[in-house]
Batch of 2 targets.
Target 1
Amino acid sequence: MVSQGRAIGYIVSVGGFLGMGGRKVLVDPASVTVSYNANVSAGMP
């Protein structure tokens, strides 16, 4: 979500199984860490 040109939260889907029962929640951007590892194959942890 954006307010005055600034991200105030990310909407993410949590829970559920096979597309059923999931819920959308708002997450504070300060709680999110994004990282990139070039040594990990796609689809592998």
Target 2
Amino acid sequence: MKSLNPKTDAASMFHYVRSNMLRGFLYAAFVSFFINFTMLIGPLFMMQVYERVIPSRSYETLYGLIVIGVFGVILFGVLDFIRSWTYAVMADVFARRLNLPALQAGVLRSIQGGAGEGGAVIKDIAELRAFIQGGAISAPIDAFWSIVFLIALYFLHPVYLAVAIIYILVMLFLNFITDRVTRQAIQDASKAQQRHLQDVANSLRHAEVIEAMGMLPALVRTWRRSQEEMLDMGHVSSVRNRIVVAITKSLQKSLTMIVVATGAFLTLANAVGHSVLFPAMIMTSQAVSPFVNMIESWRSWVNAFDSWGRIRLLIEGYENERQTMPAPAGDGDLDIDNLVYMPDGRDTPVLRGISFSIAPGEVLASSVRRARANPPWPAA
């Protein structure tokens, strides 16, 4: 019999998943390039209305711009749907490829005593699937293609480009600060949550014993302490992240005033026309907003990487599969006649007069009624 190499199989499986994710990510990035181009239609429409339609009072020009604008909006919707569908396919392939190996590894881990860890892997896969389908995964792609808006700002006036770059550098610095002050706190909170869930799962496996022995009040107190630890760690990471997000949003709100003021100075200096004032504000906001979204979604990225690490650790951690030998097929009936069972220390049988016959391939199921009022073991 040829032996399998689970470690090699796991490595091939993860290589396939990573390759599939990379191909999907690159395709989404390609589509995002054109999405960002279609987002220029709004500012350009506004600029042309101010420069051409209003001075000339030309309805024909306005109708032509409206047709172009509607076409751009429809194209944006189609491209955004294609990108969203790409993420959905990536998430579906990810879940289908890892669900069964993760379930098998989780069952083995549960058998060895890690009920919480074994069950949590399915939750990790569901969270990663939701992350891939969500909007957070698009933030780095949109941040990369913000160069489209930066080039457009340069053609409006280099000062607009300088303002946008300064804000982007500030957002990148805040991203770095967010990582430094929240990553460890988020990981600690995630580990505390895993420990809490594992404690609860292990306790539920012995629910009847806990209730019978009166251990529930003490166990509830232990759960409460574990839950408070988990909530405290989660509160720390949440507060730190919210402080950085609040600073980021404040800077984002100030961006509008800075760009309008910059446009006013340039207009007064006759460096640009008044028609570029509001389009420049929109383009600058669109160039900076992906970096703001990266800060707001940072917690999702950290949790996604942690979930991926736990999935890999669980699946790759069990290299030896349990080998089972098939039992030889029986060629005769199994006949039981008047079976009697009496536990040690008892004078009265608990089973009496059991008779049955089973042919090869048949399955016997029995139902035993539990008598709690008079258990067959001494009271503790």
